[in-house]
Each structure stands twice: as C-alpha cells, then as structure tokens.
Amino acid sequence: GESVGLHLPTLSVQEGDNSIINCAYSNSASDYFIWYKQESGKGPQFIIDIRSNMDKRQGQRVTVLLNKTVKHLSLQIAATQPGDSAVYFCAVSSGGYQKVTFGTGTKLQVIP
Amino acid sequence: DAGVIQSPRHEVTEMGQEVTLRCKPISGHNSLFWYRQTMMRGLELLIYFNNNVPIDDSGMPEDRFSAKMPNASFSTLKIQPSEPRDSAVYFCASSLGGGRNTEAFFGQGTRLTVV
Fold it and tell me: Within 13 Å, how many C-alpha atoms sit on residue B97's CB side?
C-alpha cells in the first residue's frame, strides 16, 4: 500500500526567509503529487502539483521538486510571509486513479 | 463559483443518534470525495464517487457509515448510530475527474462532536 510521511512536524522560519518542506513516499508507481495548505478552521487548499514526468515545477513564490529515485518531494516557499503560516500536506496518487494518500502534515510557523 | 459547500459547519449529537452531513460539489466536477480528519489519523479518504457512482469505499470505517450521491450536485454522508470515536472534521472535496488526476477542491468541513 501507499504510505506518505513528512520529515518534520513543525518548521519555524523568519519572515522573508525561504522555507523548505519535505515529504517522502513509498510507492514507486506514484505518478501524481500535490501540495495542499490548510489554515486553521478551513479545508485544505491546493497550492501546486507535479506529475512524474517532471522533476521541477514553479508557481508564484512556490517550487515543487520531485526526486523519483529516492521517492522524495519538497515544497519551497520563497520570501516566506506571515500569511504562509499553516499546515502543509503532500498528497500522492498513482495510475490515473483519483484516490490520493495524504501525508501527516507539517506546521509552518512564520516568525515576524 | 461558491466552491464546495458543506452543511452543517458544526454538529453536536448524542451517542446513538443518526448524523447526516451534506455536500454540494463545484458545478461541472465529476469526482466527489469524503474525507475525515483527526489529530491521530490525519486526513483519511472515506469514499470516492465518479459521475455519481461510488468507485472506492474501502475507507469507510464500518457499516455504520454510508454515503450517497443521488445527483451530480448533492451528496450525503450518514452515520447511524453515531459513536464518540466518530468525532472529527469531515471534508467533502470535488475535482474535474475525467480519468486524469487533477487537484481536489475542499469544502470548509463539518466538525462533528459525538457526546
């Protein structure tokens, strides 16, 4: 089965610094990867996704890196802002199937 | 679009009572998901519908849980009878579907407390 885990449960960064949130997955057949942000009292919100035929994808202030060799995924947030404070989840699925497995989440705390 | 709409936002019920959670997906989305979130187990997929048909209900904890999607714009998750261990935040999400993975859009969730 699929298991998805995060390396750090809590990450504290200074405002303006870059943040890196990591995720490890176990199923080598995984081919679709998503990062979600969840603020307190709200549902998860899509940030960025990447498919297995890519190793890097950039959005606005965010970059996702995929290393299929070691089954590792990371989310980089540039110039972290207080509004970035939230819990971040990676989610993984395989085979074109809509079922995704969520990681346990990393809490990002931005220090003003 | 108003996004995925869930009701109620909060539900407090007594053990043994029936609970019904409701969801309106985003118009045009073909896939609908019910998730449960707890501190201990994180986000768990309970059931997934595609074109109103249940595709995978392997995450449904037990027979006390049931879900329906009578049409493309409405789904329910029912717990009967409810138990204190069912206390959690229940999320509904929808996505375009169509056989290719796309991001899911989540509702605000229903916080269920069973006393």
Answer: 19
